Amino acid sequence: MHKKKYQSIISHYEFCLEKYGDTYMGVDWPNINDVEKRYEIMLQVIKPIMSGKTYLLDFGCGASHLYEYLLRNHLLDKIDYSGLDLSEKFISLSKSKFPDINFYCQDILDGHSNLPEFDYIIMNGVFTEKCDLSFLEMLSYFKKTLARVFTKTRIGLAFNVMSKQVDYERSDLFHLSFDILTNFISKNLTRNFIIRHDYGLYEYTVYVYKH
């Protein structure tokens, strides 16, 4: 799939930022309480360690609201945060707010990407919207991106997609069935994964581990 196809997703989020500013609606989440729940669930991918910091990449960091969640909940003594986004507008905003944080503005599907490895990578909202992409185009983007990101994690990653266990499906969202998901992960990444469909939203979160 050509870059211009998934660039439409980036343009959609930049439009939301322009319309709503540095808020949860500026990254196209409709409900602040659901946003907080997503952060809580995403961070549970991290397994307890005896000592030292966990190096975490917020992939598709947007306005770095996950970092703000970590700050509010006093979790930065345990987590070393970095952010990545394809959008220069979001990276510029994040850098203006947090100049001491490592931010990357790059496309991991670009052969010139030099992204280092991290203990964990969180991809919150990266695969929930497909905008004007067809299901097959979005599925291709999902598979290529996930496979590439998995090579950059030392321990594991977390991502969310829209559930098919819903009353109706929106055409602009990426509703992914369990069978397509598990077939891809088990055959191309690992058999070590957990599906979280237990937190009350119309989506599910997946933890994928190296070991």
Description:
The protein is of the alpha/beta class and 211 residues long. The protein has a single domain, classed as Rossmann fold, CATH 3.40.50. It contains six helices and seven strands, in the order ααβαβαββαβαββ. It has helices at 3-20, 32-43, 65-72, 88-97, 135-150, 178-188, and strands at 54-59, 79-84, 102-104, 118-123, 153-162, 193-196, 203-209. Strands 3-2-1-4-5-7-6 form a seven-stranded mixed sheet, with helices on one face. β6 (193-196) and β7 form a beta hairpin. The longest helix has 18 residues, at 3-20.
Describe the structure concisely for a colleague:
This protein has 211 residues and is an alpha/beta fold. It is 36% helix and 20% strand.
CATH architecture descriptor: 3-Layer(aba) Sandwich
**What fraction strand?**
15-25%
Poorly predicted segments: none
**CATH homologous superfamily - what is it?**
Vaccinia Virus protein VP39
Helix content: 25-40%
Spatial separation of the terminal alpha carbons: 31 Å
Contiguous helical run count: 6
* Rg estimate, integer Å: 16 Å
Order of helices and strands: HHEHEHEEHEHEE
Q: CATH topology, which one?
A: Rossmann fold
Shape: globular
